[in-house]
Task: inverse folding
């Protein structure tokens, strides 16, 4: 079992930055591949970014490539999502998720956090 707790969301003006954090507990964090997803009002949950257990490989949705950076600190059991050049369309609830194996861009992760709200004003 893995418990995930996100933080760092908030209200930011367009063009600004936020860093989301997700702290894991309950199992060996360094064994898990980690992902960030988001869900905007009235829309389905979508993939944002993912990182392999070692941190050696990252994946990004086209909509955030070049603006967002995913990273992890296995010593702190934490995965981060640095979000720069934020746009109103980035407004959503952001979720972190963990999985041992499988396609990192797919939403069928094993464990999910409760989410953190990000609102970007124009």
Result:
């Amino acid at each position: 079992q893995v418990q995930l707790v996100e933080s760092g969301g908030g209200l930011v003006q367009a063009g600004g930055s936020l860093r989301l954090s997700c702290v894991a507990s309950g199992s060996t964090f360094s064994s898990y591949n980690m992902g960030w997803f988001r869900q905007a009002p009235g829309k389905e949950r979508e993939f944002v970014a993912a990182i392999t257990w070692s941190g050696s490989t990252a994946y990004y949705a086209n909509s955030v490539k070049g603006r967002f950076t995913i990273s992890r600190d296995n010593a702190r059991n934490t995965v981060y999502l640095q979000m720069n050049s934020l746009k109103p369309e980035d407004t959503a609830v952001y979720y972190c998720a963990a999985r041992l194996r499988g396609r990192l861009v797919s939403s069928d992760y094993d464990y999910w956090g409760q989410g953190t709200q990000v609102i970007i004003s124009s």
